[in-house]
Amino acid sequence: MKSPSMVSEVLQQRSFNTVCIPAHVAPAQLAALFAGIKTQQNVDGIMVTVPHKISFTDLCDSVSEHAQFLHTVNVVRRNTNGTWQGDMFVGDIVAHLPLTAWIETARQRGCRTSTGLDMFASVRDLMTDFLLKNHQSQK
């Protein structure tokens, strides 16, 4: 999987002794997986993907106002008091992307927004910042 290795690379570039490890789990086993993760003292946060974003919201001790409104999370971190807080990134970024280029087509003129790698980089940075907010185990 590419995403975990890319996130691990960013974390290590920021001098954190941290890696992102994928976990393949069936929806019915999500709560059991999270219960196990909560007991591990060296897990500071989790990135959540489909199909678990909605279900994981109910497993968090607290969620941001944005995540509560959407009833979905894609990142969860352990706070210094041991509670787990969820948030949802991507929607904010997509809604505020600047127009970056005008493209000429054979029939019409249109615009293209900075999606793809630009969006991934922005989401990746927001998610890693959120996860590392309370991180204590630096190199």
TrEMBL record:
<dbReference type="InterPro" id="IPR046346">
    <property type="entry name" value="Aminoacid_DH-like_N_sf"/>
</dbReference>
<dbReference type="GO" id="GO:0004764">
    <property type="term" value="F:shikimate 3-dehydrogenase (NADP+) activity"/>
</dbReference>
<feature type="domain" description="Shikimate dehydrogenase substrate binding N-terminal">
    <location>
        <begin position="2"/>
        <end position="76"/>
    </location>
</feature>
<dbReference type="GO" id="GO:0019632">
    <property type="term" value="P:shikimate metabolic process"/>
</dbReference>
<dbReference type="GO" id="GO:0005829">
    <property type="term" value="C:cytosol"/>
</dbReference>
<dbReference type="Pfam" id="PF08501">
    <property type="entry name" value="Shikimate_dh_N"/>
</dbReference>
<dbReference type="GO" id="GO:0009423">
    <property type="term" value="P:chorismate biosynthetic process"/>
</dbReference>
<keyword id="KW-0028">Amino-acid biosynthesis</keyword>
<keyword id="KW-0057">Aromatic amino acid biosynthesis</keyword>
<dbReference type="InterPro" id="IPR022893">
    <property type="entry name" value="Shikimate_DH_fam"/>
</dbReference>
<dbReference type="InterPro" id="IPR013708">
    <property type="entry name" value="Shikimate_DH-bd_N"/>
</dbReference>
<keyword id="KW-0560">Oxidoreductase</keyword>
<dbReference type="GO" id="GO:0009073">
    <property type="term" value="P:aromatic amino acid family biosynthetic process"/>
</dbReference>
<comment type="pathway">
    <text>Metabolic intermediate biosynthesis; chorismate biosynthesis; chorismate from D-erythrose 4-phosphate and phosphoenolpyruvate: step 4/7.</text>
</comment>
<protein>
    <submittedName>
        <fullName>Shikimate dehydrogenase</fullName>
        <ecNumber>1.1.1.25</ecNumber>
    </submittedName>
</protein>
<dbReference type="GO" id="GO:0050661">
    <property type="term" value="F:NADP binding"/>
</dbReference>
